[in-house]
Specification:
The protein is an all-alpha fold. Helices cover 78% and strands 0% of the residues. It has helices at residues 3-23, 30-37, 41-47, 51-74, 79-90, 99-109, 113-140, 148-168, 172-189. Helix 1 crosses helix 2, helix 4 (51-74) runs parallel beside helix 7 (113-140) and helix 8 (148-168) runs antiparallel to helix 9 (172-189). The longest helix is centred in the middle third of the chain and has 28 residues, at 113-140. Pfam families: TetR_C_6 (PF13977), TetR_N (PF00440).
Length: 193
Amino acid sequence: MNAKSELMKEKILNAVIELFTEKGIDKVKTRDVTEYLGLSRSHIYHYFKDWQSLSLAAVTSFINAEIKEFRLIIQPLSARQKLQEFIKGMITDAPDPTRKLYGSLWLLSTHDEAYASLMQTFLDEWHEVLANIIQTGMDEQSFRIVDVHRVARQLDAMLFGYSEQILTLPSKGLVEQAKEDIDDFIHRNILTC
């Protein structure tokens, strides 16, 4: 594919990502993309074989970029700071526009194998980010020696559970409760004194 074609493909993907973030994956149709970009439907499908392949490519592009950006942000930080950034990315009282995209991806993954496979890949990647943070903390001797993947799974479960609850029933009280519970878990299971 030549450079001009790559630019157009990227433009389409970015538009789809913006629409998914704004509305959720399941609420966006080809017509929305054509109107947003001022392109014909056939022009879009010149670059993607069908709607699902376009949607999967857009979600993959978005989440890969998000993981890459997060890794760059935390790279110079201590393990404790990295862990706080990871938590802050999931437990917040500020509205997160990407939650619609993640939420609709989660729902689609319950009944579509392609989305389920994609979701599992991203969950595994985020788990590895968290496990690497914990391992770094152990190497720095600021975290206890623990079963890295087990503790990462436990913390992942807490973070995802609270994150979904906050998304569904947002309140400052719930956010504070989540932060306190997660902080307690970290102090009891991860941090050295």
